[in-house]
Automatic annotation (TrEMBL), chain A:
InterPro entries referenced in this protein's UniProt entry, alphabetically: ABC_transp_permease (IPR001851), LivM-like (IPR043428)
Recorded GO MF terms: branched-chain amino acid transmembrane transporter activity
Keyword ATP-binding found: no
Gene Ontology cellular-component annotations: plasma membrane
Membrane topology (UniProt): Multi-pass membrane protein
Lineage: Bacteria, Bacillati, Actinomycetota, Actinomycetes, Bifidobacteriales
Polar residues compositional bias, start-end: 349-364
Major place of residence: membrane
Name this protein carries in UniProt: Branched-chain amino acid ABC transporter permease
The keyword Heme appears for this protein: no
Residue ranges crossing the lipid bilayer per the database entry: 38-64, 76-95, 101-124, 131-153, 173-192, 223-245, 257-285, 297-319
Highest rank taxon of the organism: Bacteria
Alphabetic keyword roster: Cell membrane, Membrane, Transmembrane, Transmembrane helix
Automatic annotation (TrEMBL), chain B:
GO cellular component labels: plasma membrane
Name of the molecule in the record: Branched-chain amino acid ABC transporter permease
Similarity annotation: Belongs to the binding-protein-dependent transport system permease family. LivHM subfamily.
PANTHER family linked: BRANCHED-CHAIN AMINO ACID TRANSPORT SYSTEM PERMEASE PROTEIN LIVH, HIGH-AFFINITY BRANCHED-CHAIN AMINO ACID TRANSPORT SYSTEM PERMEASE PROTEIN LIVH
GO molecular function, one term: L-isoleucine transmembrane transporter activity
Transmembrane stretches, start-end: 20-39, 46-66, 72-91, 103-122, 142-167, 187-215, 235-259, 266-294
UniProt KW Transcription keyword: no
Gene Ontology annotations of biological process type: D-alanine transmembrane transport; L-alanine transport; L-isoleucine import across plasma membrane
UniProt entry keywords in alphabetical sequence: Amino-acid transport, Cell inner membrane, Cell membrane, Membrane, Transmembrane, Transmembrane helix, Transport
From TrEMBL, chain C:
Signal peptide boundaries: none
Domain ABC transporter: 6-254
Enzymatic class: hydrolase
Organism (species): Bifidobacterium mongoliense DSM 21395
GO annotation terms (biological process): D-alanine transmembrane transport; L-alanine transport; L-isoleucine import across plasma membrane; L-valine import across plasma membrane
Alphabetic keyword roster: ATP-binding, Hydrolase, Nucleotide-binding, Transport
Gene3D superfamilies cross-referenced by the UniProt entry: P-loop containing nucleotide triphosphate hydrolases
Protein name per its UniProtKB record: Branched-chain amino acid ABC transporter ATP-binding protein
Amino acid sequence: MKKSILSTKQSYLVCALGVLALFLLVMAVCETGLASPYIKGIMMTACIAVIMTTSLNLTIGVLGQLTLGCCGFQAIGAYTAALLSKLIVAQGIAMSDMSRFLITIVAGGAMACIFGVIVGVPALRLHGDYLAIITLGFGEIIRVIIQNLKFAGGIGLSKGQQGQALIGIDRLANLYVVFWITVLTVAFLFMFGRSRYGRAVKAIRDDEIAASASGLNTTYLKVLVFAISAFFAGVAGGIFAQYIGSLNPAMAGWLNSINYVIMVVFGGMGSITGSIVSAIGLTILPELLRAFSDYRMLVYSVALVLVMIFRPQGIFGSWEFSLSKFINHLFYRGNGPKRGRAAVAVEGTASTDGVASTEDNATPDTAAGADDVSRLQDGVIASAGIAGTGEGSAGVGPDPNAPRDGGAMQEGDDRR
Amino acid sequence: MNSQLVMFISQIFNGLKIGSVYSLVALGYTMVYGIIRLINFAHGDFIMVGAYVLMLTAPAIIAMGMPAWVAVIPAILICVAVGVIVEKAAYKPVRERGNSMTALITAIAMSLLLENGAQAVFGADYKTIPTVFSIPSVNFGALHISGDTILTIVLGLVIMVGLQLYVSYTKRGKAMRAVSEDKEASILMGVNINSTITLTFAIGSGLAAVASLMYVAAYPQVSPTMGAMLGLKAFVAAVLGGIGSIPGAMIGGLTIGLIESLTKAYIGTITAGIITSAFSDAIVFGILIVVLLVKPSGIMGKNEGEKV
Amino acid sequence: MSEPILKAEHLGITFGGLKAVSDFNMVIGKGELVGLIGPNGAGKTTVFNLLTGVYKPTEGEFWLDGTKMSGKKTYQVVRAGIARTFQNIRLFRQMTVEENVLVAFDDSFSYHMGAAIFRTPGFWKQEKKKHAQAIDLLRIFGLEGYAGVQAANLAYGQQRKLEIARALATGMKLLLLDEPAAGMNPTETEDLLSCISTIRERFGIAILLIEHDMSLVMKVCQRIQVLDYGRTIASGLPNEVANNPQVITAYLGTDADDGVADDVATGKSSVDGGADTAESDAADKKEGAR
């Protein structure tokens, strides 16, 4: 069965075109002067929020570990980027603003990543509540330390004064560049999530003991995820510093981190789409409701409790929006609902967005299989008998999955 | 007595005083965590609620010719009500449907709700509160120890001992311990879990109200976020003492209070100005991290490994 | 017997002064199926935890295929070739059946993060190959039709099978099965038995089996080792063990007159009825005391 009118590669292309279209829209709005600096500012803030939320979602939603210290890493990235930018200027190193911006945010990310590893190695030995509280503790320590660093106050470096906001940072952040950094971040997290790494991380979320009993180096993977999250938080911090132009140590506090946790939770645990939507939504919403800004957190907290009670997995759950699937859906609408549903079900389950669903039927005879596969194939003969349900005997027909998967889904649901 | 020694001893008493407040708050954390395995983030904010009630009721109480501390009675009643409502309206439904992470997020949300609710009602500013105690201070030569310091320490000890006796010897107290050991078995033994949990919340919140009285006696100011840092430090105290243990909460609270007061006074001199008193919050969290990494079960706690 | 797959010598572990397992010796040859039995709390699951690196032995050592394994971490032991299932099923419940198997394949993947991020041809080739392997493995257990189903939605018996499939996917040489038939009805147990014999034939692996269902143990195991209070009280062929008076005492608590396998089999029902988790609870408490 051809489940999709688009191959995986085509669907990536569709996705890339969609992003490009979005970019052109943003560009059109900005260049024609439709967007005031205020609107551009919101877009910039939304991009930063998207980077923070999607990367935090990797730790909270995919790895299933609640951390309350993401803004500590954001602050490390922000201060690193800001101070490095000042240092480059102070040293008189000649480089374009663009390369200075890119170098400093990567440096910010790298520094945050290093701290992520330093914090993650001990902290990730703990689980659940204890991990949350220990990351909160680390965030607060980072805040207090930044507050007491002389060179991180005033206008920075040698002229600094402790306990002051860092000011006079060159505002190099450009919306177009930041847009593409955001796209790269999301693409990275998406590809990471849909590979063996993503599977392994989800396995740890579901059952850590079983994950290590399946041969996964759980400690390594957890620290890896933590470090990736910290890296992107640092990048977001670097962008933030060079967009706002001044930094305050309070940004590392845990209440700020909670803001991003709220975005992740609203969006849905493990859903990148959900994180993007809720990051953008919760950035724009307060701007629309300026008049009610005093009650913003009040509303958030009530909404948060309601979401936790009625939809603990978040608004989007782990559902992902896919442009190619959407297109598919449009084209399949006429072909009977049953077939359409089966296609969605199968594709939704494929672990690597389409490897399984689009190309699997040919696989048993691919030469790649080598020993294991042929040995396993011998087992097929026995399996018919063992299964006893008759399903196993269907063999490798041209269209083995279509009817059976549908049936299996139903059966599975019934037995829940 | 030389002046340095006087200074040191008064720092010790300062530490014990704030430590007693931490202990009372930590008791609330430790009891709730023991019974439903949830860090009740909102617990620190119960103190804030208690303090506002004190602020509002104290003038009326004084006008009625009673001592100001009597205002703690309405504070206890309101705090117990808030604690029980939070449990019934938010924690219980989430506990039944979600996992430990959703429960923790709910607790954080309740904390935000209380803080921002108070801010919406009373504004974000600090408000002063009338003096609740007027007890003469005790003098040993050059050493002055204020009356409310001694009262705070004594009250903390009395409550801790009382609570320990309550959970050890009364039927409801034993039920609490049973539920925290094994929920399912407790049901089979005829323990009403829900009422036990509610009772735990009620006791914890009531203690928070007492803590708020002691806190405002020392620092006569109220603000919507006053409970946040206090709550976090008390939680650190609960972890340090061993979460789930009543004497542990007391020991942890006093330890944190002493460490805080002594580092504030001496760390600058000891480290020759490298680490200043501005680091005292960081030091408290540093202690938390070290305890969690070295002995997560705390001083008095017991180990709990995951079943394989 | 050929060169042993598993050799354990004087293996033991103490939790806070309490000897959970002591002087545990075992040799398992290639392709052998050995049973490990004993009353609740005898330390059987603790032996599994020792052999998979969940606990570090306080005394003794064990080797897999001549390589010393004691002291290694769980994932290292698993990658070297000892896989296990759990008494209380531990699946990746929110993941699909196929993903459960693919996770266990992880060690045999060779692409790195860069390849995953940039979706290189090597990435696609390997994902495709592993997908095919996973489906083939699931087919042995009649689960291939459920590849896309969430593991939590499988029927109980299927979950047990999936757990075994996942263990097989690690590419192990020795499989440790912890009460695979617990909670199954006779038909499901029968089904499982033929599964076990199929995978033994196909993969040529050795199996160590913990089981309370005595008739199952007697039927499939080539050799049996009996634990009581952490000590080995008997080991040998099924018949020898069943007739061993010490074993009968351990199971029935009294001297049985002319007890043979049947007596043990009746003993089983009472043992079986006990709480399945009692043993691991005991182990936990011991650990707590440490």
